[in-house]
Amino acid sequence: xxxxxxxxxxxxxxxxxxxxxxxxxxxxxxxxxxxxxxxxxxxxxxxxxxxxxxxxxxxxxxxxxxxxxxxxxxxxxxxxxxxxxxxxxxxxxxxxxxxxxxxxxxxxxxxxxxxxxxxxxxxxxxxxxxxxxxxxxxxxxxxxxxxxxxxxxxxxxxxxxxxxxxxxxxxxxxxxxxxxxxxxxxxxxxxxxxxxxxxxxxxxxxxxxxxxxxxxxxxxxxxxxxxxxxxxxxxxxxxxxxxxxxxxxxxxxxxxxxxxxxxxxx
Length: 266
Ligand code: SF4
Hints:
Shape: globular
Radius of gyration: 17 Å
Bound molecules: iron/sulfur cluster
Number of domains: 1
Helix content: 25-40%
Number of helices: 8
Order of helices and strands: HHEEHHEHEHEEHH
CATH architecture: 3-Layer(aba) Sandwich
CATH superfamily: Uracil-DNA glycosylase-like domain
Distance between the termini: 21 Å
């Protein structure tokens, strides 16, 4: 994966180191002061990916998080780090942190309805050690670990109203690109929703127009110019509270995606 001809990583407008990175109760071991958003480092040392916990490249999102830090000082309120090991074969990509979910707890899909659908599905198909995302204290469950899986977001900072702008999606895509490069065993990606689907394709150097999103659709992506195999992309509707409440997505139709992924990975 390290030599795939992915597009250049977009430059961030601003990357700051900060002394106080918030409570981050879900992933304290992943605190870093410097974003690893450097194309040359990504190409030569794939294992060097670091979650961009100090990134403030998107002024609107950084400003929103600053307000939340003042209002809710116990919450994570920073870019949310990915969860799971970089040597996993499966990467799950969501849209972005939920305000009272990942943005509060510091772990993707933890604390809101989306996680109540995702983690039981991962547990059922052997990708997690527990089904319950929250512990007894209502923070990230310390007994839950991912097995051969990792979870990331297309946009790593809380987007107000769950609506990142196209510019914010583009700005954050370089991190997803670098993260994929840093996963040497990656074989399958599950994209949760259209924005995640488009972000994965962009990160892989492919055009979304050539690969239409569809729930439980499998995309066998073309090989790279030097004949390397790209990971297989599986699409799912996002497991959001909205899709759950409106009936667009049921637990059964959601878990059917992970059944296919399990069958694919063996
Ligand atoms: S959304 Fe991504 S690029 Fe924008 S500030 Fe957050 S981490 Fe940085």
